[in-house]
Design brief:
By secondary structure, the chain is α+β, with helices and mostly antiparallel strands. It contains 9 helices and 12 strands.
């Protein structure tokens, strides 16, 4: 029935089975974080299973091959609602059109990388995109002096260092923090929160950086952070490096803890730093944004590399009528490069 030698047929079937088992187990992420760790690679495993199944379609293993191929396609399809697979479209169908009658704000999410060798690219990106608020991950001691260069343009800030000096979270804002509201750091710097005044509307902004998934600390960290996430205000935008894909149980647990809605992913944001950006499609979409309440997300896009193994994400959002007030001319002013250098 096939020109494929029997030995190779058996070998391919063995490899197909070996790839299908972790793909299946990844759907049981809610039962144990070990399964969730497998689930992060659902897209990769589904593609491997499909490729291995194809040559077996013309062999005596037709039934097994068809079953595996159908399962791979079904598994792959479970990621498409949350993932812009090619990352070419900055606007997802789930986003709402920009309003003509109220202000649109910008949030820039960046995993800085603790040992970034070109921090000037980060500062340049912030200066060019002039976001209203910046959420940052992997804030290490080396960034202290760099943030001082942004002091004039972004005078409102909360920096939450980790005990080890790296991997902390931070928020920089050119919008003032709400009067009388305190900023907070939770779980050894994994979560930074601040209430930001967007032209009269008080919105909680949170920056999160989770640890690696099982067998590392991620599940425990989510459990410890859940009460803090639940305490965020009715209108919140939370962004950060989850070290978890948008279809994972970890991402769902974050959303459930805060009553948050996960923004459709912009595509793979993380890739080994040693690999060229041309293979970004093989990376993982682990930088994600959540929102709730009066926040309306209009667009999101990946930006160019700034020396980190993560790509920045620029999100545009507005606040529902009743939650905001008309912007004045000063509120919509952009930050010049001269101001950035302070």
């Amino acid at each position: 029935m096939s020109r494929v030698p029997p030995f190779f047929q058996s070998s391919i079937l063995f490899c197909l089975t070996a790839a299908t088992i972790p793909l299946l187990l990844g759907f049981f992420g809610p039962l144990h974080p070990a399964f969730d760790s497998l689930g992060h690679f659902r897209v990769h495993l589904a593609i491997v299973v499909a490729i291995l199944a194809l040559p077996l379609l013309a062999t005596t293993y037709l039934v097994q091959a068809l079953s595996a191929l159908v399962f791979a396609i079904a598994a792959f399809s479970t990621t498409t609602d949350t993932l812009n697979l090619v990352g070419l479209k900055p606007v997802h169908a789930a986003f709402e059109a920009k309003p003509a009658d109220r202000a649109v704000y910008r949030l820039l999410q960046i995993n800085l990388r603790f040992d970034n060798r070109s921090p000037e690219k980060v500062l340049s990106l912030i200066g060019r995109t002039t976001p209203d608020v910046v959420t940052l991950d992997e804030v290490s001691a080396m960034w202290d002096g760099k943030f001082e260069l942004l002091k004039n343009a972004y005078p409102y800030r909360v920096i939450c260092p980790r005990p080890n000096g790296v991997f902390g979270a931070a928020i920089l804002s050119r919008r003032p923090f709400a009067e009388g509201k305190e900023t907070h750091c939770f779980e050894r710097g994994a979560l930074a929160t601040a209430t930001v005044d967007f032209a009269g509307a008080e919105i909680d902004v949170a920056a999160i950086h989770l640890g690696w998934p099982w067998p590392f600390e991620q599940a425990r960290q989510i459990a410890l952070l859940s009460p803090s996430i639940a305490s965020l205000s009715p209108s919140t935008i939370l962004a950060g490096d989850l070290n978890a894909t948008p279809w994972s149980a970890a991402a769902r647990n974050i959303a459930d803890a805060g009553g948050l809605t996960l923004m459709p992913s912009v595509g793979a944001t993380w890739l080994f730093l040693q690999l060229p950006d041309s293979v970004r499609f093989a990376g993982l979409p682990i930088d994600n944004v959540f929102s709730k309440g009066d926040i309306v997300i209009h667009s999101a896009e990946r930006l160019e590399s700034v020396g980190s193994d993560h790509l920045p994400i620029l999100v545009e959002f507005s606040i529902k009528p009743g939650g905001d007030q008309p912007d004045d001319e000063n509120e919509t002013a952009t930050v010049s490069a001269e101001q950035m250098r302070g």
